[in-house]
Write a sequence for this structure.
């Protein structure tokens, strides 16, 4: 049997690699990090201390419609044709994302009343951009093949943030069936950029009722880019030491601050059937420090410049047609830089899962343990969603979680999301005395050729986990 | 690191397996150097609509056979034109309801009025109730594109060609440029 498990791990390890959300950590109650995915997770340990900076690192990169091979495959040398083809194929709802988390400090302990308190600090980066379809077409192909076809600037939509999160959570077992948890968070913003809810159409029309071949229309243009923590980066007078000190200050509430909450719970319908759910990062950051807003708005239409013949005005001065044209454009299409504070909402996440257990474990009864895993095998279905500017993005995962021994468990997951239909992920967690380490990677099949992968995700962590004897 | 030890530590085993199988193949990243954006932009340029009155000297009121006007096209000096413009195709259209023919001369001049490029063609005569179109396409290929890059002014000059008919009508002008770039 051990050989079979070994072969299973070897197969999974060698036939996979790529990842996205944190579905591999969700419902893994033996790991403290599961509390960050569900503060109401039915954790089965009594204390934990993360190795500073190494207790959890997560990075995931994804593109819903494009991979490296699409652009650079060596069987087709015409790279520009491939770029054009990709731009035409992608839609405005395709997106690119980059997410990273680094746990700086992490600790937790069970109180005498049985509740589990956990706290920590982590740094997070989240970048998300929809593919700006129409502006990309305009830049790549121009308007020549798109006469009478509007280019829509609402396609421009992106967000990005880097922040430090300070959190404190409490996990309480209400009764034998229900465990709930809540986590309060304070956000300290380091950098933010957002440009959403833009509007505007640019159209070149060949209306025969207009006086020139074409009339260009810029209609209801309203593009706004909010930034915080960006303007000072342009301050070339700062030394490296000053920049470092500035970034550290921002990490410790020296800049933009916000607050949020996670809630979650676990309900055991039967001993081997659980329902879990959580909502994470219901919160905001008030951007007030080092803020710059870039605005471009207005409407304008032009047929071109109209000389008047003769080329001098009544005072015999040359008529500055171009300057007059520019002034008219500037009056109608305004370009402004402001310093207005703004509020950003965190990308709220949602998890829900059903989990069944089988092959019952027989452990020595310990009345002090609030939760004990009762089955060697767990299978489950997990729905994940994250709020993005236009909609929620979802991922559905089916998983098999096996406890091989008291010191080793593994979780194999198959996920369907916007990136892939072949996302097989693996988590392995190994405990050596009180020291625990885990490694999780998604989309393992993609590792055979990363160029054809549209997403990749990796997580690992090292910590001490304690159980009362 | 022996295989036995890997077997003992599943995390190292998984890491080792990933490292062993992961690769990037079938791609040529040197192609990044060849990536270029090549938009073709249709841009309206000048329009005008002149009648017989426009051929009068504004000071004396006397008829003048040649009128002209100059428009600075400041965008020709912008960096995207100077660095990345590859070709231009100008399209000019006159719609003439004068019974006279005209001679058109469109000059592209540098800042110091040096002639960089000139477009000459005759405009067909029309009729008061039946205007006639004259179309002209001027293509500036990449070998000659510096003529446009060096220009900053566009001068339109119209000369009435002699005719015994009454000088009455309307002359409309339309123009556009198809600017092709390679960024």
């Amino acid at each position: 049997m051990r050989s079979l498990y070994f072969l299973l791990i070897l197969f999974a390890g060698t036939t996979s690699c790529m990842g996205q959300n944190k579905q591999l950590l969700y419902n893994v109650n033996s790991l403290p990090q599961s509390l960050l995915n569900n503060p109401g997770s039915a954790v089965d340990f009594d204390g934990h201390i993360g190795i500073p900076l190494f207790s959890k690192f997560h990075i995931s990169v994804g593109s819903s419609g494009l991979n490296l091979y699409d652009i650079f495959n060596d069987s087709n040398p015409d790279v520009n044709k491939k770029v054009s083809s990709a731009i035409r194929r992608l839609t405005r709802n395709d997106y690119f994302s980059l997410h990273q988390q680094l746990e700086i400090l992490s600790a937790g302990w069970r109180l005498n009343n049985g509740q589990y308190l956990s706290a920590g600090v982590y740094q997070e980066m989240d970048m998300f951009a929809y593919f700006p379809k129409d502006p990309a077409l305009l830049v790549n192909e121009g308007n020549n093949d798109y006469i009478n076809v509007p280019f829509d600037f609402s396609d421009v939509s992106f967000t990005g943030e880097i922040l430090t999160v300070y959190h404190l959570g409490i996990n309480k077992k209400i009764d034998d069936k229900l465990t709930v948890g809540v986590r309060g968070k304070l956000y300290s913003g380091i950098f933010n950029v957002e440009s959403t809810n833009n509007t505007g159409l640019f159209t070149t029309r060949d209306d025969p009722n207009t006086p020139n071949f074409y009339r260009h229309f810029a209609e209801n243009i309203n593009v706004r880019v909010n930034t915080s923590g960006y303007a000072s980066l342009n301050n070339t007078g700062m030394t490296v030491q000053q920049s470092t000190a500035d970034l550290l200050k921002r990490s410790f509430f020296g800049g933009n601050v916000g607050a949020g909450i996670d809630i979650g719970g676990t309900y055991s319908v039967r001993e081997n059937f659980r329902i879990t759910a959580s909502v994470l990062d219901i919160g905001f950051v008030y951007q007030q420090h080092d803020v710059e807003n870039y605005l471009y708005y207005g409407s304008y239409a032009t047929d071109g410049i109209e000389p008047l013949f003769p080329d001098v005005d009544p005072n015999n001065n040359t008529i500055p047609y171009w300057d007059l044209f520019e002034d008219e454009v500037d009056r109608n299409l305004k370009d402004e830089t402001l310093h207005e504070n703004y509020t950003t909402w965190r990308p709220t996440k949602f998890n829900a899962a059903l989990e069944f257990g089988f092959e019952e474990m027989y452990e020595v009864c310990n009345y002090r343990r609030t939760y004990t895993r009762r089955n060697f095998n767990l299978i489950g279905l997990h729905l994940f969603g994250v709020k993005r500017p236009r909609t929620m993005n979802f991922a559905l995962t089916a998983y098999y979680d096996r406890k091989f021994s008291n010191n080793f468990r593994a979780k194999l997951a198959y996920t369907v999301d916007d990136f892939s239909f072949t996302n097989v992920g693996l988590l392995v967690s190994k405990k050596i005395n009180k020291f625990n380490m885990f490694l999780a990677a998604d989309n393992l099949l993609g590792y055979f050729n990363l160029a054809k992968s549209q997403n990749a995700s990796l997580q690992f962590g090292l910590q001490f986990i304690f159980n009362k004897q | 690191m022996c295989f036995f030890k890997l077997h003992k530590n599943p995390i190292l085993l998984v890491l080792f397996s990933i490292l062993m199988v992961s690769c990037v193949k079938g791609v040529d990243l040197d192609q990044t150097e060849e990536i270029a954006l090549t938009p073709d932009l249709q841009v309206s340029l000048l329009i005008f609509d002149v009648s017989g009155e426009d051929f009068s000297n504004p000071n004396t009121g006397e008829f003048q056979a040649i009128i002209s006007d100059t428009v600075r096209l400041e965008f020709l000096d912008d960096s995207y034109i100077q660095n990345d413009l590859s070709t231009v195709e100008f399209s000019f259209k006159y719609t003439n309801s004068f019974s006279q023919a005209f001679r058109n001369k469109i000059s592209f001049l540098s800042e110091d009025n040096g002639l960089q490029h000139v477009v000459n063609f005759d405009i067909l005569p029309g009729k008061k109730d039946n205007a006639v179109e004259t179309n002209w396409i001027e293509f500036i290929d990449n070998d000659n594109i510096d003529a446009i890059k060096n220009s900053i002014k566009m001068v339109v000059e119209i000369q009435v060609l002699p005719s015994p008919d009454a000088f009455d009508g309307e002359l409309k002008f339309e123009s556009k440029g198809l600017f092709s770039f390679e960024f």
Observations:
- Confidence is low (pLDDT under 50) at residues 1-20 of chain A.
- Chain A touches chain B through 69 residues (CB under 8 Å).
- The CA atoms of residues 79 and 147 of chain A lie 26 Å apart.
- The first strand of chain A starts at residue 47 and ends at 50.
